[in-house]
């Protein structure tokens, strides 16, 4: 048993002393950032139910009356209803399609030891650093040859391709944290590798799968670059394009700032509710996946 000299600081106390100063500075900054974001969100919601004159004359006060017609006008004139349906279809299909492709690939990379594994993992890792602007033109040519320009299916394929590097990289680290003994026991019981993956490993990796599913939804919900290039018909536009189109209409139909804030709220609120609801699960999944 280690004996410490009275009055002499131990390594643990020294570490705590070093940690206390950054913590004392960091915690207030984090709460200030949280308070700022909450205030911005409340200001956005209040502005969405104000008249245009109130937004400029009384920007920091409660609305004198609720102008819910701002939401109705944005929903109808800005075509946010159809755009919301298109966004749900594209984002949901992208998230599920990405998981169907990335989960088996990540499992194989984490379990099968070959000389190609390091190169393949590096290949997916390099994909994280490719800017969207670099691949827009090649993707446009490929989708044009496949007659997938201005279709939700083409946009979904582009989103899946852009999501695979991060998803495979994330799930590879997550699968490595799962115990190998369970696979060995399943093999002794006669289970095939496919059955072991589907019935044993996937349920164990549920936390990581849900985390990466939510992160992909957040990533593509408000995406604009690919949607602006590959979608041309307004009936196929997503929420981000509907918001951009509504902003352009204001240049010709007058400044409808209340409707604009209502449109921004339609884009932001679903993601905010989803993140608040599942924030703990996201953090737990990322924490488990980062430790081997």
TrEMBL record:
PROSITE patterns the record matches: ABC_TM1
Positions of the ABC transmembrane type-1 domain: 84-278
A matching Pfam family: BPD_transp_1
Membrane association type: Multi-pass membrane protein
GO biological process: transmembrane transport
Subcellular localization(s) per the UniProt record: Cell membrane
Transmembrane segments: 25-46, 83-109, 121-143, 155-176, 196-218, 225-247, 259-278
CDD domains: TM_PBP2
Swiss-Prot/TrEMBL keywords: Cell membrane, Membrane, Transmembrane, Transmembrane helix, Transport
GO CC, alphabetical: plasma membrane
InterPro entries xrefs: BP-dep_ABC_trans_perm (IPR050901), MetI-like (IPR000515), MetI-like_sf (IPR035906)
PANTHER family assigned: DIACETYLCHITOBIOSE UPTAKE SYSTEM PERMEASE PROTEIN NGCG, MALTOSE TRANSPORT SYSTEM PERMEASE-RELATED
Record family assignment: Belongs to the binding-protein-dependent transport system permease family.
Descriptive protein name: Carbohydrate ABC transporter permease
Organism of origin: Actinospica acidithermotolerans
Lineage of the organism: Bacteria, Bacillati, Actinomycetota, Actinomycetes, Catenulisporales
């Amino acid at each position: 048993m280690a004996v410490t000299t009275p009055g002499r600081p131990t390594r643990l106390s020294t570490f705590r002393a070093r940690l206390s100063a950054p913590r004392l500075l960091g915690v207030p900054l984090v709460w200030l950032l949280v308070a700022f974001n909450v205030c911005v969100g409340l200001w956005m919601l209040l502005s969405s139910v104000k008249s245009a004159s109130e937004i400029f004359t009384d920007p920091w006060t409660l609305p004198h009356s609720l102008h819910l017609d701002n939401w109705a006008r944005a929903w109808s004139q800005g075509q946010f209803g159809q755009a919301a349906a298109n966004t749900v279809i594209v984002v949901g299909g992208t998230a599920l399609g990405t998981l169907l492709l990335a989960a088996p690939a990540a499992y194989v990379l984490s379990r099968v030891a070959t000389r190609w594994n390091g190169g393949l993992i590096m290949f997916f890792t390099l994909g994280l650093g490719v800017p969207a602007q670099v691949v827009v033109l090649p993707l446009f040519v490929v989708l044009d040859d496949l007659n997938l320009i201005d279709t939700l299916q083409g946009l979904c394929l582009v989103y899946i391709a852009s999501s695979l590097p991060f998803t495979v990289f994330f799930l590879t680290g997550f699968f490595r944290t799962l115990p190998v003994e369970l696979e060995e026991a399943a093999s002794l019981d006669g289970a095939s590798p496919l059955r072991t993956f589907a019935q044993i490993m996937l349920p164990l990796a549920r936390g990581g799968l849900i985390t990466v599913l939510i992160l992909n939804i957040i990533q593509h919900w408000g995406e604009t670059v690919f949607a602006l290039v590959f979608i041309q018909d307004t009936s196929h536009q997503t929420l981000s394009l509907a918001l951009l189109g509504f902003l352009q209409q204001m240049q010709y139909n007058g400044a409808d700032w209340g409707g604009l804030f209502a449109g921004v709220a339609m884009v932001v609120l679903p993601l905010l509710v989803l993140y608040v609801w599942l924030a703990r699960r996201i953090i737990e999944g990322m924490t488990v996946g980062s430790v081997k």
